[in-house]
């Protein structure tokens, strides 16, 4: 019997998710310009606070958390760029 590994890839983000991701990235960049001493941990905690929902809607929170994590990775690139420009 032959074993063929299958890699499940996440589907591409919807246009709305892409738009929200772009807007969140812009907000984070503006915040970091105003607060250059802010850390990636500050942004990470803020994203976690933003996705917590008292209504308990897990799906929305999971989507927002996924977007937040992607933005955190993008933030790492922005921080590296900002620090390199100094």
What report would you give on this structure?
This protein is mostly helical and 86 residues long. It has one domain (15-85). The chain has helices at 15-34, 40-51, 58-85. α1 crosses α3 (58-85).
Runs with pLDDT <50, length 5+?
A: none
What about the largest sheet? none
Which series of helices and strands comes N to C? HHH
Structural class: mainly alpha
Rough outline:
globular
Q: Give the termini distance in whole angstroms.
A: 58 Å
Number of domains: 1
Estimated radius of gyration: 16 Å
Strand content: under 5%
Average the pLDDT over all residues and give the rounded result.
Answer: 75
Helix content: 55-70%
Task: Give the number of DSSP strands.
Answer: 0
Number of separate helices: 3
């Amino acid at each position: 019997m032959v074993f063929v590994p299958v890699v499940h890839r996440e589907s591409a983000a919807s246009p709305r998710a892409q738009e929200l991701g772009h807007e969140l990235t812009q907000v984070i960049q503006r915040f970091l310009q105003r607060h250059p001493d802010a850390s990636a941990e500050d942004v990470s905690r803020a994203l976690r606070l933003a996705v917590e929902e008292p209504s308990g809607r897990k799906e929305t929170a999971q989507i927002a958390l996924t977007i937040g994590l992607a933005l955190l990775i993008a933030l790492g690139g922005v921080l590296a760029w900002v620090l390199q420009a100094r």
